[in-house]
C-alpha cells in the first residue's frame, strides 16, 4: 500500500477530537426554581464527578470516520503486483504481442518492451493464462497459453530483436484467432511496440468482436534522430579491358537536427577502401560517391557504413558484386547495303547495363554454329537465312533464344518456317503521298513498352512512318503496337522457352525517321533485353523476401546439394531435388548469406540482405487510432497502464480510485454516528 499525498496522514491527529469530546462532556442537571431564592445571587453549579468515557462504540465510530476521511485525502493505491489479487474478477486469457521488428533496436526500446512484457506476466493471477506472440512482418506463437510465469518470463528474456519490417496486421489477426478459441470470458490482447506508422495502413481488415479488449504499451521515444543508408547505386565502365565500378551511396536523415561531418566508409571484401565525410540536413537526403575500383571476380562483398546513432542496423548497407555479363547477339542483314545496320549497331554500342556484344553478318554467310552462343538473332530487313532452315532456328528459339524480324522490302519468310513468325507478312503499305503514319497504340503492360508508361518518358507519336508491311496475326500472337490507322506495328509469339517479335517497318532511315528520335535508343535496348530474358544482376535483397535456390541452381546447371549459412551462422541443408517448399529460403536476417554446394571448390555464392528502408522512419502512430480500428471504439482511459514500471504514482492511483471508497465509508460512519449519538443523548438526559 502506498499513498499519493502522504502528508495528509498528519490529519490523523484529529482523532483526538472525539476523545476530548467524550472526556469533557458534562452531565446535564435539571434546576428546580425556589421562589424564595429567586432574588438571591445565582451560584454556578460545578460537577465534581470523575470524568470518564462511557460510550466506547461511539468513540470508535467517530475515530474511524475521521481516519477514513484522512486516508481518502492521502490518496492510497496498491502496487500492481497486488492489484491482480485484489481486483480479481475471474480468470483471464491474455495475448502478449511483442514487437521484435528492426526498429525496436533503436536505443533502449527493446529493453523497455521486454520489461513491459514481464510486467504483464507478473500481473497474472493463479487462474490466468497468457500467450506470447513475437511479430515483425510475420507473427508466431513463441509460448502457447500457459499460467507458468517462469516459462513466460524466460521466453521474453530469450527473445531478440529481428531484422524484419513492422506489420501489425498479422499480429492482430493471430491474437484475435487465439482469443476466439478460448473458453474464458475475460479476453484481452496487450500490444507492446514502438507503433511505427509504416506498420499500419488501416486496410488490414482486422476486427475484434465484443468481449475482447486491446491495451497498448508504447516504447516510442520522442524526437528520435536516425541516419540510414537506404540504397546504393553502381556505375560501370570499361577501361583497358577491365570493368571499373563506381559506388554511390544514398543517405537519409530522419532527425530534426542536421548531421555534419558524418564519416561514410566503403568496404570491399573486408578492406576499407575509402572514407568520405558528408553533411545531411534535417529530414533530408544526400549521397556520396567513392573512387572507382576494378571489379575482376564474382561474389565480391561490399558494404557502406555511415556514422553512428541509436539504431545501428540501418547505418550499414550490404551488397554483392559480380562482373557484368554482356548480351551476345548477331545482326543478319542482306549485305548489299553498308549502312543498313548502322542505326542498330550505334544504339547497341551505347550503355553498360547490360553491355551488348554485337556481330554483323549477311544471311548467306550465317552458319548454324552462329546460334550456339547467341542470346538474340536480328534479321534486319533480309531474307530468311538458309542456316536457319532444317529446324535450326526453331531449336534456337525453343531453348530460350530471341528473334527480332525487321520487316522491310527485303524481308522474306518461307512457308515451312511460318510457325516461327508472329503472323503472316503481307504487302507494303505506302504512305509517302499523303499524311505519314505514326504509332497510335502501345501495349504499356508489356515489358518492352512498360518503361514508357510514365508521362514525359518517351513520345512515339513524333516519329513519322512512311512505309510498313501488312501483318496478319493469329489469336495466339500478342500485338504490342499499332499505327494510327490500326495496322500492326509490332507483334510477339512465344515458341518454347524463346520469343519471336516482328517489327513491320525498318529500324533505319529508309521507311521511318524513328532512328533519329530520342525513343529509338531505349526502344532497341528494351527489345533486346526482353528477347534475351535479361534480368539485371541483383546486388542485394530485402529482409522478408523468399529466395528460390532451386531455380538459381537450374539456371547454372548445378545439381549438387547445398548448404545455406545465414549471417548468424545457422546452417540450413538444401536438397537438389527441391521437393515441396524445399529450396525456398525466407531471408529473415540482415547481412550476408552464403550458399555452399556440395563438392564445389572456390568461393561460395554470396547473397546480401538489408532491412526494409521503411524501418528507418520511426514516426509513430497514435496507439488509440490502431485500437479504434480493430475494436470499433476508442481505447479506454488508462488502457496503456499495464506496465507498472513505466506508470507514474498518479497514474496508478487514478486507475484504482481507492480514495472514493474510503471517503464514502467515512461519510457513512459519520451519518451512523449522528443517529446513534442522538439516541444515546436522549437516554442520558434525566430529570
Q: Which key terms come to mind for this protein?
A:
single chain; 687 residues; alpha/beta; Rossmann fold; Immunoglobulin-like; 5 domains; eight-stranded mixed beta sheet; 29% strand
Structure description:
- The protein has 687 residues and is an alpha/beta fold.
- 22% of the residues lie in helices and 29% in strands.
- Strand 23 and strand 24 form a beta hairpin.
- About 3% of the residues have low confidence.
Helix proportion range: 10-25%
* Largest sheet entry: 8 strands, mixed
- Secondary structural class: alpha/beta
Shape: elongated
CATH topology of the largest domain: Rossmann fold
Radius of gyration: 42 Å
Strand element count: 32
What's the CATH H-level homologous superfamily of the largest domain?
Class I glutamine amidotransferase (GATase) domain
Going by CATH, the architecture of the largest domain would be 3-Layer(aba) Sandwich
Helix count equals 14
| Stretches with pLDDT under 50, minimum 5 residues | 46-50, 81-88, 637-647
Query: How many structural domains are formed by the residues?
Result: 5
Mean pLDDT, to the nearest integer, reads 85
Distance between the termini: 52 Å
Task: List the strand order in the largest sheet.
Answer: 17-16-18-19-25-24-23-21
**CATH class bucket of the largest domain:** Alpha Beta
Strand content: 25-35%
